[in-house]
Design goal:
The complex is a heterodimer of chains A (344) and B (616). Chain A has 344 residues and is of the alpha/beta class. Chain A has twelve helices and 14 strands. Chain A has an eight-stranded mixed beta sheet with strand order 2-1-3-4-8-7-13-9, sandwiched between helices. In chain A, strands 10-11-12 form a three-stranded antiparallel beta sheet. Chain B is α/β, with parallel strands linked by helices. Chain B folds into three domains: 220 residues, Pyruvate-ferredoxin oxidoreductase, PFOR, domain III (Pyruvate-ferredoxin Oxidoreductase, domain 3, 3-Layer(aba) Sandwich); 186 residues, Rossmann fold; 107 residues, Rossmann fold, CATH 3.40.50.920. Chain B is 36% helix and 22% strand. The two termini of chain B are 52 Å apart. The chains are: A alpha/beta (344), B alpha/beta (616). Chains A and B meet through strand 1, strand 2, helix 3, helix 5 and helix 11 of A and helix 1, strand 9, helix 9, helix 11 and helix 12 of B. Strand 2 of chain A pairs parallel with strand 17 of chain B.
Chain lengths: 344, 616
């Protein structure tokens, strides 16, 4: 096949293309299974060469992920997945790089790599499995555990303030942030696909249930009975509505985000905020990320997807091209003999 | 310039030291003078000596910056122990450097800077120029500041800018004293300040003013001349260790047909490697200035996985932070070059001073059985060769390699015969062809035990690697006890087998004798100079200098057994000696070690060796 023909080839992939060689070894009932299935489904939808896909991870339950995908994969060190993934993407910008991480891996030991990868806006997809607990070490509190959570390492309850991953993304000038729950496969697929198509660092936080050490931590958000009132699914260009009959919405009044009922206190559909994830101004996105129970529903969906910054790897390639175009030095012999040389 | 009506003395070699405040441009004028001596065909070695603080309080001893140059007609191996000529631009520079000048040395001072407050700032109780303490030296008291100012005023420069030119006045005097072509000095300035014509003009004018001052005043009864070196034929350039290391990696990448990736974090004294490579995008070099040392090496590991010649550069504290990731490179069996430009430790230690105390860290500083190849460069210029060889071994053996240099090699520079790329050894990476039906991630080359290197993007070779133990050949995660033992053994044996491809240990001098001096890394110049001098005196002394430490050259034992006594010399508290004792316990080793953040002095080595040799 000539390179030209190769370019034109349409790749049709199926779920089987990504089936692992060995067994998947997460606990029965773990939310990770649903995420794995969603990512495989998204890759099938996206098409492309499966050889160009790389999954990179750190350490933790979530970080076993690369072993369960029949792609190129790298199971790295605790917290360092983002740095390894950065090296892979900068080395070969043609690759589609996914970094799978957890709340301990990315928010604690890997916090520095997490924020700097986002700040650089390297074109990769970071997926955080947030179960608000250390699972692989059997049940210590994590940086996202809520205050008061009793765990093996916080017998009287957590006294630290938790991180919300999205806050760090906004603080690091992230260009893409989305949130989903592991109980909604359709939502996960839509969001993961948007993340994959985003040019720049995309961060998807998936509220994932650890069935063993922190079971039902997200129950208030995901329960069938309460989810309509406790989640708001944000979609670009649509009003920010929630509730069983979409009877509630978000309004901005007196410099503050508020929940309002349509038809009450003179609030009409026109008063409801329209979601614009593309707005470079991140303050509203930041507010949406921070919304939490009981005052607010928890925001799901693509909260921010802004193409305001060119990805690092693209800019780097441009600098490389410019340098190659303008430099007189074309090979090592040129460099060795450049500048101040003397013939004796 | 031969029409001077005074005597010209021929010298074989000479050591010059320029010292002043850290803002006085001593490094610039040092490089400028080195360039001129190189262009005139002298062999040379230089060493900058600068404070860790960027601008310590002006006029204090903490803020003194120095630049030492040793040049000659003969082969120059070190920047020299003690200076024949010292330029001191203030009392603090004089105070700091008096212990580093030879008896009877020529000392040029800026007499304008010896006001009572300057003298006090330097910590002198009285003016050293008047109190008779400098009686044994040839003192030249020049009004450097005032004459530089006067020259600049004519060109319309303000006093502050004029102040920055006084290094050139002093340098102009040196050009005269050594019969150097002043135009070469002026050309350097023209290039350096090409974008600032006024600065260029002022500096050139002050340089010439210094030259004419020296010519006119009757301070110098004679001047010196050093003949060009005889055995230097071909094309040369001056090169510092960090640049040489960066270029060595680039040369290896070109030879291997790979692109170079450096993931690094700024750290003294290694930063210039990152800086140099950041300027080489035109040759396909990629650099990432990472958020920390850990990300530096992990990004390099990612790049290695993606098929690049990957490297990271650091110093001791950074190597400590990289330990965990080096283990990852060991278990994933990816090629990786780690350059550790050693400095004084522990902890932050002496950031700008050389030391050889990271050897144990390089050999053993990781969790688990984690063998890596350890090498050391021994001159500023051969940082090129050993960086090249480190990369060659890494990609041909699929193994991490730690290359040790130090602050002395990194910042020191010497004249270097420029190699031709066609003359460098070939490098053949262990790459796999697409869809190779026999590919398995941990299938090994029978000779080297290197696993194959399949790269994301390649068809039919998808695989997963990582920090968990892998099953031999197929590379899936394995907790099997016997498999673990086997893999530990294979990774170890792979490093041992590197000994099959490294050169034999060479002996400088006879293969047998009374005393074998053993050294490694950056101490070569001092050790070889001391040994050479004693050989000339007829002593039965030889030098074995190690560049390959793990594994050691195959003939090491053969070399050691040829001598009645062995002395291991190193700039630490005795680390290589542990390694030799572990490997060859049958020999007795004497030791000479020094941990002062300073290189050896040739004279101290000679006294030590002579003392030992007296017994014969």
């Amino acid at each position: 096949m000539t390179p030209e023909e190769s370019k034109q080839e349409v790749y049709t992939l199926t779920r089987d293309d990504f089936k692992p060689e060995g067994a998947v070894k997460w606990c029965a009932g773990c939310g990770d299974y649903a995420i794995l299935a969603s990512i495989q489904a998204v890759l099938v939808e996206l098409g492309g060469r499966k050889e160009d896909i790389v999954f990179v991870s750190g350490i933790g339950c979530s970080s076993r992920f690369p072993y369960y995908m029949n792609t190129y994969g790298f199971h790295g060190l605790h917290g360092r997945g983002a740095a390894i993934a950065s090296g892979i993407k900068i080395a070969n910008p043609k690759l589609q790089v996914w970094h799978i991480t957890g709340d301990g891996d990315s928010m604690a030991i890997g916090g520095n790599h997490f924020i700097h990868t986002i700040r650089r806006n390297i074109d990769m997809n970071i997926v955080i499995f947030n179960n608000k607990i250390y699972g692989l070490t059997k049940g210590q509190y994590s940086p996202t555990s809520p205050r008061g959570l009793v765990t093996k390492s916080s017998p009287e309850g957590v006294i630290e303030n938790p991180f919300t991953p999205g806050e760090l993304v906004m603080g690091a000038q992230g260009t893409f942030f989305a949130r989903a729950v592991d109980t909604e496969p359709k939502m996960m697929k839509e969001i993961l696909k948007a993340a994959a198509l985003h040019k720049g660092t995309s961060v998807v936080e998936i509220l994932q249930n650890c069935v063993i050490f922190n079971n039902q931590i997200h129950a208030a958000i995901t329960n069938k009975e309460t989810k309509d009132d406790h989640q708001i699914y944000l979609e670009a260009g649509k009003p920010m509505l929630f509730g069983k009959n979409l009877e509630k919405g978000l309004i901005f009044k007196n410099n503050k985000l508020r929940v309002a009922r349509i038809g009450e206190n003179g609030v009409t559909l026109d008063d409801i905020l329209i979601h614009d994830p593309t707005n470079p101004e991140e303050m509203l996105h930041y507010t949406l990320v921070k919304m939490g129970l009981p005052e607010f529903p928890v925001a799901m969906g693509v909260i921010r997807a802004c193409d305001c910054n060119e990805p690092y790897d693209k800019l780097y390639e441009k600098q490389m091209e410019e340098a190659k175009k303008h430099s007189k030095i074309k090979c090592m012999d040129d460099l060795l003999n450049s500048g101040n040389v003397l013939d004796l | 310039m031969d029409n001077k009506n005074h005597q010209i003395i021929e010298l074989e070699h000479v050591v010059v030291k320029l010292a002043g405040d850290s803002g006085d441009g001593m490094q610039l004028s040092g490089s400028q003078f080195s360039d001129t001596t190189a262009i005139e065909g002298h062999d040379l070695a230089t060493f900058p000596d600068y404070p860790a603080e960027i601008r310590a309080p002006q006029g204090t001893v903490a803020g003194v910056s120095g630049f030492q140059l040793h040049f000659g007609h003969i082969k120059v191996e070190t920047p020299g122990d003690l200076a024949d000529v010292l330029i001191a631009l203030n009392p603090a520079a004089l105070k700091v450097n008096m212990k580093w000048v030879k008896p009877g040395a020529t000392i040029i001072v800026d007499v304008d800077s010896f006001e009572p407050k300057d003298i006090e700032k330097a910590g002198y109780s009285q003016n050293p120029l008047d109190d008779g303490t400098l009686g044994g030296y040839k003192m030249v008291k020049a009004p450097i500041t005032s004459l530089s100012h006067a020259t600049c005023l004519e060109l319309g420069l303000d006093a502050k800018s004029a102040d920055r030119t006084k290094n050139q006045f002093a340098l102009g005097m040196l050009y005269y004293l050594f019969n150097k072509d002043i135009d070469l000095g002026a050309n350097f300035l023209e290039e350096k300040f090409a974008k600032k014509p006024i600065v260029s003009e002022a500096n050139k004018a002050v340089l010439r003013a210094g030259y004419h001052f020296a010519e006119t005043v009757e301070e110098f009864d004679f001047t010196y001349r050093i003949k060009p070196s005889d055995d230097m034929k071909g094309r040369y350039r001056s090169i510092a260790g960090n640049t040489a290391a960066a270029w060595g990696l680039m040369a290896a990448a070109e030879k291997a047909g790979l692109e170079l990736f450096l993931g690094s974090y700024p750290i003294t004294p290694a930063t210039e490697i990152l800086q140099e490579l950041a300027h080489q995008k035109q040759l396909g070099v990629k650099t990432l200035q990472a958020e920390d040392e850990i990300a530096g090496i992990n990004s390099a590991i990612g790049a290695a996985f993606a098929g690049k010649l990957a490297a990271t550069s650091t110093s001791g504290p950074g190597l400590a932070l990289k330990s965990e990731a080096i283990g990852l490179a060991v278990i994933t069996e990816l090629p990786l070059v780690i350059i550790d430009v050693q400095r004084g430790g522990p902890s932050t230690g002496l950031p700008t001073k050389p030391e050889q105390a990271d050897l144990m860290q390089a050999l053993f500083g990781r969790n688990g059985e984690s063998p890596v190849v350890v090498m050391a460069a021994s001159t500023p210029a051969n940082c090129f060769d050993y960086a090249f060889m480190a990369a060659k071994i890494a990609v041909e053996h699929m193994v991490p390699v730690i290359l040790l240099t130090d602050g002395y090699l990194a910042n020191g520079s010497e004249l270097w015969k420029i190699p031709k790329m066609s003359e460098l050894p070939e490098i053949t990476p262990h790459l796999v062809k697409d869809n190779d039906p026999n590919y398995k991630p941990y299938l090994r080359d029978k000779e080297t035990l290197a696993r194959s290197w399949a790269v994301p993007g390649q068809e039919g070779l998808r695989h997963r690697i990582g920090g968990l133990e892998k099953e031999d050949v197929i590379g899936t995660v394995s907790h099997d006890p016997l498999n673990h033992q086997k893999m530990v053994g294979l990774r170890q044996e792979k490093v041992y087998r590197v000994a099959n491809v490294i050169p034999k240990l060479e002996v400088y001098g006879e293969d047998t004798g009374d005393l074998l001096v053993v050294g490694w890394g950056g101490t070569y110049g001092h050790l070889v100079s001391a040994v050479k001098d004693l050989q000339t005196e007829g002593k039965k002394i030889s030098l074995a200098h190690f560049n390959y430490i793990y594994p050691l050259p195959r003939n090491t034992e053969e070399v050691l057994k040829g001598f009645k006594k062995i002395i291991v010399c190193e700039l630490n508290n005795g680390q290589f000696i542990y390694w030799l004792r572990a490997m060859f316990p049958q020999y007795q080793y004497l030791t000479y070690h020094k941990v002062q953040g300073l290189p050896f002095l040739i004279n101290e080595l000679k006294s030590k060796f002579t003392e030992i040799l007296k017994e014969y």
